[in-house]
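Team,

Forwarding the record for the chain on the shared tracking sheet. I've put the sequence and predicted structure together so nobody has to dig through attachments.
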Amino acid sequence: MSFRRGVVSTFGLLSCSLLLAGSLYAGTYQHSLTIDTMSLDWSVNSDTLAVKVAAPTTGWVGVGFNPSDMMKDANIIIGYVKDGKVKISDDFGTGVTSHAPDERRGGSSNVTVVGGSEVGKTTTLEFTIPLKSGDAKDGMIDPAAETKVMLAYGPDRDSMRMKHVYDKIVTINLSTGTMK
């Protein structure tokens, strides 16, 4: 075997391994809930929360964690899929009915896109976030505690500026998967 072919083969194996490692979250989650017309799947993996959220829209889908009052102080992940490409923003609840990207508020984006799709009239986003990012705009997520989880989606338009057509806040223990 030539050196070049050996390098290509090794590179190919490494690429396949990385691809498989990146897709471990996709499709396999520890917990799953359907809340009205939205689905929420998640896994707690040491210091990371892997999330899959889907809604009946061709617009944006969002999930937020631990708001103090409606949207205020929540770590909000919002996004959409356009032309097969996922656009996700890591936002902070700046008020009871407003939010802005962490980066515009002195924080940083701590979301990692795992995937997403728009099939028919359903948009699905998959991402990971750290349970404790160290970013003051995120707050800490304690999987063993009761976590307020905000779910929302917008109208059939790829713009995160559009007001939601559905929203709900539920309380979930992320470790056990139970909803109050």
